[in-house]
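Fig. S4 source data, part A: sequence.
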Amino acid sequence: MPWAGFRPPMVFKLIAVNRNIILSLLFLPLALACGKNDGDNLPGMEAVSYQSTDAIIANPERGFYTAQEIFHATNKGISKDGAAANRKNYRTLYLLEFHLTDFVNTNISEEYLQTIRTYFQSMRDGGAKCILRFCYSNGMNESDKPWDADPALTLTHVAQIKPILQEYDDIIFVVQAGFIGSWGEWYYTENYDNASRKALLEALLDAVPDSRQIELRTPAFKMNLYGYSVADTLTRATAHTTDVKARLAGHNDCYLAGPNDQGTFNNSNERKYWAAESAYTIMGGETCATSVYCDCQPKESPKAAHGALIDLAQYHFTYMNQGYHPGVLKRWKDGGCFEEIQKRLGYRYVLDKGQFTESPVAGEAFRIVLDLHNEGFSPVQNPRDAEFVLTDKGGKVLGTWKLNSDPRYWMAGENVTVDQTITLPSGISGEVTLWLNLPDPCENLHDNPLYSIRLANKDIWDEATGYNKLHTLTL
């Protein structure tokens, strides 16, 4: 308590302190208006404060997705107008679900392989990315059989698809293991035992570029097929490598439907496992039924239901189906948490303060210290470039410097400090601008602003370049 231990002799000292506080508050609006923050500055550094925004942002590789099912060969993909309309609704992700029903007893036709390419190319053209799944059946009834193909033929299908996955790795956000069972969810199958499941998974790990993760439908699949336990969960040291453990993620397609999400979890250890793993792997899915568990806020009964917002954070959700289940989505809207979920799915990086060498000189060292935090449920999960960019008044790039900090470790709910010294280019003068750029690392997407990360701050985003403005300085 501020007044604890108050003694009469301190009264004049407290009045003086309070006077200083009052004066500080009077001048605070002026300081903020100037975009500067002089509190707790480092020596010789100029401080700039940034204002956060409540806006919903259509950032890449996160958020609600649009589902697209492709049953037969076609020369159509996602139209540019469709992708643009999706972006206006804050969606940059599609679930591309390729149904291989026509090929359950034969190789995939060249026409259908070309259809896959067409859809992938439309992702590039439209500035979108895809969650990818292949399946054979669209139902779980006897009339929907066969639910999947013979395991040997499925491996042939994976081999056929592999060159396309390698060619279009840039627009693949994540691959769901698929193929097995109804809807490719690894259930309702008569063909697959653990050995054939693992053989398929190994084939997929080979076919999918090693920069991308593969999602399994339940934590038990990863734990049982590879002998992992809660003690083996990923850490900062073991995450984001090409090892199998780091590449296997999860998707929950019956999210918050009940105490075990209709078979997604068998016990509390599996829940602990996914909660820990998803800090470093992609987690997403869809809801499938209403229940007390999907309410926005905690309910007193049952005690295990602690509310969607808490649960989404606990399991580090990056994406969710925007079209299903309608009852759950309505409950989120009626409960007042839908927009918050829109904002917080995946990462939401917010700049708090920047400090910069006070009297910069061309050709000399220039220190940059940034304080930021992540308001999202998860950090960005795929590889992501991060660089400082310096431009002149005309927008010409004068220099770029890679950050010494990886955005994949800007963890949910945590504060991050980036402290880096660069050398300014020699022979430049006048007004220049320093930016933070978080582009896609794939070469053909790096300079496309649709694939760059926009920070959740006011008045710093440049739509034309995909840069976030940090500071303007004069040399």
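Fig. S4 source data, part B ends here. Confidence is low (pLDDT under 50) at residues 1-38.
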